[in-house]
């Protein structure tokens, strides 16, 4: 499978010096062409910071301390995202990688019709396109996200939250990007709506071929709609696997805890245990495995040696885990 985005050794801090919050730590992550990659983890684990980091949209005092992000266009040379100029970056963000933020549906301008807003996006990036062609494109995009032509001239307040979110997806797709990043909030969208939106995105990518990075707390949603899942804890990716395999058998005890925090999709009912304890303080991380204070299976190396993400010793092809239960102790 071809890679569309390659993140290597990414570290993102808020602030500098002793007081810096190291929100993303040594992240290696690959997004493949046309796949849906789900990113899950408790609140504060660094999911949004990762999304902002790779699109270079970090709010101050966020800084990328180290790492590289490489974008691989369909044809042409790989692009070093960290080296793009502001102008190149603006184009990159709409045309190659589009991001739909938490609460994006509220960022539509209330005083303009949705058709106007969509046409503006197209016009800004395709100045040579004729007006009728732009209008046709806008119609087509709205149709794609399930909004009929007679709603085009509505104002945002005349649409439901779900429809506004679909308009945002339509805008994100306006320039046929290769990557769509969607960052869902804890609270703003209910699960039913998230489900519809992710279902629709998954279907659209079948037709249009873009890759999706979908961020959510709702692991059950990811199990259902994504190809692969990455789990974050304390700023690190702690497990990565094809969705079905992760659901069948989590390797990392934290993933296991997350899976037991929602009802089984099918099969026997499981006890909903959740994960006791609370996420680590990023300013004062526990030594060793950051999860060890909460881990029911912690053993000798866990409280002073960091398990790095890598292939499990017990042979699960295509999977990675950062846990001493599955990493050979010789790799220390
Ligand atoms: P949620 O699921 O709640 O959206 P998240 O996984 O997206 O959480 P982030 O928003 O990336 O988490 O935050 C990661 C860490 O960085 C948190 O500890 C948070 O407090 C910290 N953080 C986020 N933004 C800032 C900021 N502007 N300044 C300082 N620290 C920040
Ligand atoms: Fe638990 Fe140790 Fe694995 Fe960390 S490394 S998840 S503490 S068993
Ligand atoms: Mg977030």
UniProtKB/TrEMBL annotation:
UniProt subcellular location: Cell membrane
Topology class, membrane: Peripheral membrane protein
Listed GO MF terms: ATP binding
Annotated ABC transporter domain residues: 7-259
Family matches, as InterPro entries: AAA+_ATPase, ABC_Ni/Peptide_Import, ABC_transporter-like_ATP-bd, ABC_transporter-like_CS, Oligopep_ABC_C, P-loop_NTPase
Membrane-crossing segments per the record: none
Family, as annotated: Belongs to the ABC transporter superfamily.
Full protein name: ABC transporter ATP-binding protein
UniProt organism field: Micromonospora thermarum
């Amino acid at each position: 499978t071809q890679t569309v985005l390659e993140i290597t050794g990414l570290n993102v801090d808020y602030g500098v010096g002793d007081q810096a919050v190291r929100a993303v730590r040594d992240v290696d992550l690959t997004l493949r062409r046309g796949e849906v990659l789900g990113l899950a983890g408790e609140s504060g684990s660094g999911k949004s910071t990762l999304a902002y980091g790779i699109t270079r949209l970090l709010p101050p005092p966020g800084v990328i301390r180290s790492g590289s992000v490489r974008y691989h266009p369909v044809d042409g040379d790989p692009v070093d995202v960290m080296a793009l100029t502001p102008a190149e970056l603006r184009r990159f963000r709409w045309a190659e990688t589009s991001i739909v933020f938490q609460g994006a549906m509220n960022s539509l301008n209330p005083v303009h019709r949705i058709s106007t807003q969509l046409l503006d996006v197209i016009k800004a990036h395709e100045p040579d396109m004729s007006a009728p062609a732009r209008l046709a494109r806008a119609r087509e995009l709205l149709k794609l996200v399930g909004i009929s032509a007679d709603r085009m001239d509505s104002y945002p307040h005349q649409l439901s939250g779900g429809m506004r979110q679909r308009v945002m997806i339509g805008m994100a797709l306006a320039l046929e990007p290769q990557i769509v990043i969607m960052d869902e909030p804890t609270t703003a969208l209910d699960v039913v709506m998230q489900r519809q939106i992710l279902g629709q995105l998954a279907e659209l990518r079948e037709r249009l071929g873009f890759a999706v990075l979908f961020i959510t707390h709702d692991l059950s949603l990811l199990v259902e709609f994504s190809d692969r899942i990455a789990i974050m804890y304390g700023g690190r990716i702690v497990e990565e696997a094809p969705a079905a395999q992760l659901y069948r058998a989590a390797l990392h005890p934290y993933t296991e805890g997350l899976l037991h925090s929602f009802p089984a999709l099918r099969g026997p009912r499981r006890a909903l245990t959740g994960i006791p304890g609370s996420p680590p303080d990023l300013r004062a991380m526990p030594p060793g495995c950051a999860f060890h204070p909460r881990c029911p299976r912690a053993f000798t190396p866990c409280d002073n040696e960091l398990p790095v993400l890598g292939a499990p010793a017990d042979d699960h092809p295509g999977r990675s885990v950062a846990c001493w239960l599955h990493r050979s102790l010789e790799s220390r």
